[in-house]
Amino acid sequence: MSTFAATNSGVERTAAGGVGHGVAAQPRFTILIDGACPLCVRESRYMAKLDGGRGLLAIVDIAKPEFDPSRFGKTMDEVMGSIHGVMPDGKVITGVEVFRQAYGAVGRGWMVNWTALPGARWVTDRLYVVFAWIRLRLPGRHDACEGGTCRVPKVR
């Protein structure tokens, strides 16, 4: 079961609360997810389950009002426009590479490593760009953007 702990950047979800035997002192990877996106939440719950309470993966909900994207050197438009992840050294990455790192952090990199192969990388990176652009328009967001906390970013 996932639990939530308040942080200065928003809300972090760690499997089993992030305390106890076998829990990493620092996560191997932090993923910034849109907690108002049903598909994103489903994926983050699955990744938390794969973590199994070890604390290897931190999940930060960017839809929470207290989330501050400037902590990561980003704007709200940037983090809403594409998935972001944070390496242990603080480097921020985006796109499909976030999934590669997140699954790798919980020992399941083999599930997505094929996306890094020549040809497959090109296709999956472009498909994700399309998904990221339309995801704010998908049904089930439950008025997540009321109050101007997010909006559909302009396509570059």
Short description:
The protein is built from four helices and six strands; from the N terminus they run E-E-E-H-E-H-E-E-H-H. It is α+β, with helices and mostly antiparallel strands and 156 residues long.
Can you tell me about this structure?
With 156 residues, this protein is α+β, with helices and mostly antiparallel strands. The chain has 4 helices and 6 strands. The chain has a 6-stranded mixed sheet with strand order 1-2-4-3-5-6, covered by helices on one side. The longest helix has 15 residues, at 120-134. The chain is globular.
The SS-based structural class is alpha+beta
Question: Helix coverage percent of residues?
Answer: 25-40%
Fraction of residues in β-strands: 15-25%
Number of helices: 4
- Main sheet strand line-up: 1-2-4-3-5-6
Low-confidence stretches: 1-21
The succession of helices and strands, N to C, reads EEEHEHEEHH
Main sheet specs:
6 strands, mixed
> How does the overall form come out from the CA principal axes?
globular
What is the distance, rounded to the nearest whole angstrom, between the alpha carbons of the first and last residues?
39 Å
Rg calculated over all Cα atoms? 15 Å
- The quaternary state of the protein chains shown equals single chain
- When the domains are counted, the total is 1
Give the beta-strand count.
6
Which whole number gives the mean pLDDT?
A: 80
